[in-house]
Amino acid sequence: MEDLNNNSGKPGAGEEMRSVRRVAAVSSPALSGARLTLPGVMDAEGRVDESRLRMHVFRNGGVSPSERGLVWRFLFGMYPCGSTALERPYLQEQLFVRYQVMKRKWQQFVPSAVRIHLNGTDAELVSAVRYFDQREAQAEQKVQDQSEEVRDRLAFLELQAQMVFERTTFDQEELREAIRIIDKDVPRTNRDLSYYQNEGLGNLLVLRDILITYAAFHPEVSYAQGMNDLCSRFLEVLDSEVDTFWSFSCYMEKFSRDFRADGLHRKIELEAALLKELDPQLYAHLVTDSMESLTFCHRWLLLGFQREFEHGDALRLFEILSCDHLELISQQVDRARYQERLAQRYCTEDSSESELRAFNTDFTFELFICAAILLDNRESLLRCRDDVQLIQFTSSLQGKLDLNSTLKKAEHHFYNYCKRCAWDYMNGRCRANRSKPEDFFYQLRSLFVLK
Asked: Are the CB atoms for 41 and 56 separated by under 8 Å?
């Protein structure tokens, strides 16, 4: 594994964005034909090798801020990796029109929610509305200035989109409740970020429209607290309303369960199980009656450690975790299982499956990141006696953790876990026949030795 310090830059948020903030574009068609300069990732026609892209993100500790926006459009599924540079502008048009139809549909259903209701005590939000309205007027004028050919093509796409969504119905009470919570959470989004400075305040209203549109068309998920911070991360990087909606939606297809009580409970249970594997003493201390297991890790896992690292590092970590390169469900594990099947040729058939210790494929890399933080602060945690002290401890970490160090430690724990499980498996399956163990030793070494 290459040194994670080799990432092509580690700037803060202010360095990543333009010095003068504006309200995000409605769409970013110019990016649809842009090229990635990452070596070996994009072919001559603009297709992306997804495996190489994910491997590059992981091995280099993220990507440079200048390429992050385009990389995320592929990484999170807005652009299919198999699409060409010629195909993507048409895809961009389709996504733009579909989003506009969806947004207009909920606005017509709940017209009173088109504008956020202000109580007059938040002067910044009043300014945000003004900047947002200016952007809306400019976007409308831009549409009017398009050629007749483009307008005809967009009109046809709009007709198609209307047919797709014509049967969509909303539960008015549920949607109004979602909007009520969104209107409470959006103003609480971190305004200290450079992205929300000056005219960038209008991005709060862009964020609001994205979240309401998502909640309206995903009633099974709707809106839950914390989604504003997560979606804000997409909006900051992509700087486009339409592109953020579709990328955020793709992300939520995979992780929406985390925002439900059962999903969160499951993730905490997994973290506890992993910690029990890595440090039984610390695990036993944190699951005593005076402390509610590892629920204090809730925000870390839900928002991808957004506040625990410096902002630029938090963005890097998010893309590293999202690349799914170092996961127990990845292609490397498929190789491991194949190698296990090869090894079984030299093993007896009477071994009991119940004796074997298997890989827990639910232990994703973010859980190892969390474990690395816990183990690195082991002594402080052992001194905590109740939930209040745990909360004080976690609050003290905000913005102070070192990402490169944490990644190395998490990777170390990950590989040690894999090696230990593999050795246990081998001992369980091959104890009766030692005649040809060298084949399995070779396969084991080729899988787990760091390269």
From this structure: yes
Reported in sequence order, the residue ranges of 369-420 that DSSP labels E, i.e. its strands, are: none
Helices 123-144/203-217 angle, 10° precision: 70
* Gap between the Cα atoms of 187 and 208, Å rounded: 9
User: At residue 317, what are phi and psi to the nearest 5 degrees?
Assistant: -65, -40
Of the candidates 205, 194, 230, which has an alpha carbon nearest to the alpha carbon of residue 65?
194
Spatial neighbors of 172 by CB under 8 A, at least 6 apart, are 109, 110
Whole-number Å distance between alpha carbons of 6 and 1: 11
Taking only the tens place, the pLDDT of each residue in 165-176 is 988 999 999 999
Give the mean pLDDT of 310-325: 90
Angle at 25 between CA 129 and CA 109, to 5 degrees: 60
- Relative orientation angle of helices 365-376 and 261-278, to the nearest 10 degrees: 60
Contact 373, 340 (CB under 8 A): no
Contact 170, 109 (CB under 8 A): yes
Distance, CA of 226 to CA of 299 (rounded, Å): 9
Q: Tokens in use for 387?
A: 């939930």
Question: How many whole angstroms separate alpha carbon 89 and alpha carbon 46?
Answer: 12
Give the integer Cα–Cα distance in Å for 279 and 287. Answer: 13
Closest CA to 240 of 29, 21, 12: 29
Determine the Cα–Cα distance for residues 219 and 212; give it in Å rounded to an integer. 11
Which tens digits make up the pLDDT trace of 38-97?
A: 999 999 999 999 989 998 998 888 999 999 999 999 999 999 999 999 999 999 999 999
Which tops the pLDDT comparison, 388 or 443?
388
What is the number of other CB atoms lying within 10 angstroms of the CB of residue 342? 12
User: Token digits for 413?
Assistant: 């724990």
* Distance separating alpha carbons of residues 296 and 292, to the nearest angstrom: 8
Q: DSSP code of 81?
A: T
> Phi and psi (nearest 5°) for 48?
-110, 135
The DSSP secondary structure of 300-337, one letter per residue, reads HHHTTSTTTB-HHHHHHHHHHHHT--S-TTSHHHHHHH
Beta-carbon neighbour count of residue 135 at 10 Å?
A: 20
Burial of 446 (0-12, 13-18, 19+ CB in 10 A): exposed
pTM over 0.85: no
Residue 42's DSSP bridge partners are 48
Give dist(CA 84, CA 47) in Å, integer: 5
Nearest to 195 by CA among 265, 137, 128: 128
Contact 78, 189 (CB under 8 A): no
